[in-house]
Design a protein that fits this description.
Helix content is 52%, strand content 12%. With 200 residues, the chain is mainly alpha-helical. The chain has two domains: 63 residues, Fe,Mn superoxide dismutase (SOD) domain (Helix Hairpins, Orthogonal Bundle); 105 residues, minor pseudopilin epsh fold (3-Layer(bab) Sandwich). The chain is globular, with a radius of gyration of 16 Å.
Length: 200
């Protein structure tokens, strides 16, 4: 299954002022496209071109670093664009998700603080995650393109903390970007969709 660059699910100006048109153009059209192009080349060379992106991520982890880097980043970004929407974020969560966050993570405010802390304290490039692991929600962080798939978990929300995700708009103020992401960008409906799929 060849990797393909998905179209953004909104126009390039939809997330202003929290994420600029310029950031989306560079991040989606240049960075994500490079992961797709490099991933396709490396998957073909490894004889894994017929597999799904999730399978390529799992099979290449720890065995083919170049392929893993590109496949994992492709997987991460397919969902990253959908994890955001215009007028998103905030504490108005679908009931089922709110109940899980209350029972597993100590409520929305604690989730928000812990999720932002995970992204802020990830040294260098990486991601902060909300995942389902062993039937419960968990917050984690990973370096570079690594994601919860390779740690026995199902990611349901992730935020990119590579500098190209925020530097145009926030310069070095990563915590401000993370606050804007949680308060104003998260597409909770898509998080719920992934939560329900992971909970089956």
């Amino acid at each position: 299954m060849a990797f393909e660059l998905p179209a953004l699910p909104y126009d390039y100006e939809a997330l202003v002022p929290f994420m600029s048109k310029e950031t989306l153009e560079y991040h989606h059209d240049k960075h994500h496209k490079a992961y797709v192009d490099n991933g396709n080349k490396l998957a073909a060379e490894a004889g894994l071109a017929d597999l799904s992106v999730e399978e390529v991520v799992k099979k290449s982890f720890g065995t083919n670093q170049g392929l893993f880097n590109n496949a994992a980043q492709h997987y991460n970004h397919i969902h990253f664009w959908k994890w955001m929407k215009k007028d998103g974020g905030g504490n108005k969560l679908p009931g089922k998700l709110q109940a899980a966050i209350d029972s597993d993570l100590g409520g929305y405010d604690k989730f928000k603080a812990d999720f932002i802390a995970a992204g802020t304290t990830q040294f260098g490039s990486g991601w902060a995650w909300l995942s389902v692991k062993d039937g419960k929600l968990a917050i984690s962080k990973t370096a570079n393109g690594e994601n919860p798939l390779v740690h026995g978990a199902s990611p349901i929300l992730g935020v990119d903390v590579w500098e190209h995700s925020y530097y145009i708009d926030y310069r070095n103020a990563r915590p401000k970007y993370l606050e804007a992401f949680v308060d104003s960008l998260i597409n909770w409906d898509y998080v719920l969709e992934m939560y329900e799929a992971a909970s089956k």
